[in-house]
TrEMBL record:
Name of this protein: 3-phosphoshikimate 1-carboxyvinyltransferase
Annotated binding of 3-phosphoshikimate, by residue: 33-34, 38, 175-177, 204, 320, 347
Annotated EC: 2.5.1.19
Pathway: Metabolic intermediate biosynthesis; chorismate biosynthesis; chorismate from D-erythrose 4-phosphate and phosphoenolpyruvate: step 6/7
Highest taxon in the source lineage: Bacteria
Length: 435
């Protein structure tokens, strides 16, 4: 059972616009949350001023900027390009994690380098998202953490200005962010950090590759040659001037719009090479019967004229794509199975339970499994779709709403976690984009 989050929104539900004809549109998407927040952390740890160009301006990234500013970095987010000037971390401060996994997991290892007391808390549901492995690892690496034995928010990191670092074994099967968190700060620890994973397979591996790649771009030595082992050498983190790629995971609803309407959507500036998990959308959408190809402007997806095929996909590496992919499965003309995603029960909400409940509530033939979802074709109808403060639940809702009359999205504003004015952008696309 999922429950509506405490402090649930009071605004009227948003009627999702229908795509009554094939949508034809070319879109420029905001920057990647994952790249922006890693770039900010690395800039705050660097040996000089950095620039983060085309940074994503959203709740998760402004929370990260505020957290690092609270620790002592100068973070200027006033323009499109964000400027970060690192300073020694000092002084007591409070970090609001909101519902951002990247803030709750990436900032505590940085806070260990501060001389102040750093108190962490977040949204009500954030207290239920896993972080205990990071806190235990920090203690092993020489950082004092007070969490009242909860292994969860709220907790306080009491740094001494330096962290001994060294070897640590963690179970990162609940979230790849546990590994990324320790690696991002590791170069600034006296002995660096050597992280080994022991447990069921680590999900979302592309995100660890992103961490490793970005550390190397900052001149940090990383050994990732072993299986389930990542070692960061101690040393300086070079300042950098970087451009943030568009958020490919947030491309999911827009490309799905082509899929469900039989139209064509181009996402501008799709990178040739990337570590973003969203790049997997190329294969995922092809499996549904879409035509996917690169064009001069970016990535072009054309939906099938005769309805969506069923799919059988293991999304373990790209779990954050599940809500939109599940929406497509619910609309497909043949059975589907989404596997390998038990860990997304620890995302913004228990996404397997929430998707089964909300898609089922609109008539979908969906069944929840321990680590996935299965679907049989069914005729969907309108109704209220709860979003549980989860931006990607809202993405799933609008995709179904593009294909089905009368879908009402509760708290569409929750999309501000990773996308400024998502609803306005989506609506404008449907107004101008149908041909
Ligand atoms: O490191 C990151 O930026 C992320 C890692 C993944 O988390 P999990 O490994 O917890 O799935 C992903 O789902 C999340 O959206 C962003
Ligand atoms: C899991 C997600 O976010 P977070 O960074 O909060 O873990 C997500 O965006 O799908």
């Amino acid at each position: 059972m999922t429950t509506a989050p405490a402090g649930a929104p009071t605004e009227a539900p948003w009627p999702a616009p229908r795509a009554r004809t094939p949508v034809r549109a070319t879109v420029s998407l905001p920057g990647s949350k994952s790249i922006t927040n890693r770039a900010l952390v690395l800039a705050a740890l660097a040996d000089g001023p950095s620039v983060v160009r085309r940074a994503l301006r959203s709740r998760d990234t402004t929370l990260m900027a505020a957290a690092l500013a609270g620790l002592g970095a100068e973070v200027d987010t006033s323009g499109e390009d964000w400027h970060v000037v690192p300073h020694a971390f000092a002084g007591d401060t409070q970090v609001d994690c909101g519902l951002a996994g990247t803030v709750m997991r990436f900032v505590p290892p940085v806070a260990g380098l501060s001389t102040g007391r750093v108190a962490f808390d977040g949204d009500p549901h954030m207290r239920r998202r896993p972080v205990g492995e990071v806190l235990t690892a920090l203690r092993t690496l020489g950082v004092e953490v007070e969490d009242g034995g909860r292994g969860a928010l709220p907790f306080t990191v009491r740094g001494t200005g330096s962290v001994p670092g060294g070897r640590v074994v963690i179970d990162a099967s609940a979230s790849s962010q546990f590994v990324s968190a320790l690696l991002l700060a590791g170069a600034r620890y006296d002995d660096g950090v050597d992280v080994r994973h022991d447990g069921k397979p680590v999900p979302s591996l592309p995100h660890i590759e992103m961490t490793v790649g970005m550390l190397r771009e900052h001149g940090v030595g990383v050994d990732d040659s072993g299986v389930n082992r990542w070692a960061v050498a101690p040393g300086p983190v070079a300042a950098l001037d970087r451009v943030v790629e568009p958020d490919l995971s947030n491309a999911a609803p827009f490309l799905a719009l082509a899929a469900v309407s039989g139209g064509t959507v181009v996402v501008r500036d799709w990178p040739e090479r990337t570590t973003q998990a969203g790049d997997a959308l190329r294969e995922v959408l092809a499996a549904f019967g879409c035509t996917v190809g690169r064009v001069a402007e970016g990535l072009e997806v054309t939906g099938p004229a005769d309805g969506l095929a069923g799919v059988d996909l293991d999304l373990h590496d790209v779990g954050e794509l599940t809500p939109v992919v599940a929406a497509l499965c619910a609309l497909a003309g043949a059975p589907s199975y989404l596997r390998g995603i038990g860990h997304i029960r620890g995302h913004e909400t228990d996404r397997l339970a929430a998707l089964a409940r909300e898609l089922g509530g609109l008539g979908a033939g969906v069944t929840e499994h321990a680590d996935g979802l299965s679907f049989v074709p069914a005729r969907l109808h309108g109704g209220l779709f709860h979003t549980y403060a989860d931006h990607r639940m809202a993405h799933a809702a609008v995709v179904v709403g593009a294909a089905v009359d009368g879908v009402l999205v509760e708290d569409v504003a929750t999309t501000s976690k990773t996308f400024p004015d998502f609803a306005g952008f989506w609506a404008s696309l449907l107004e101008i984009g149908s041909a």
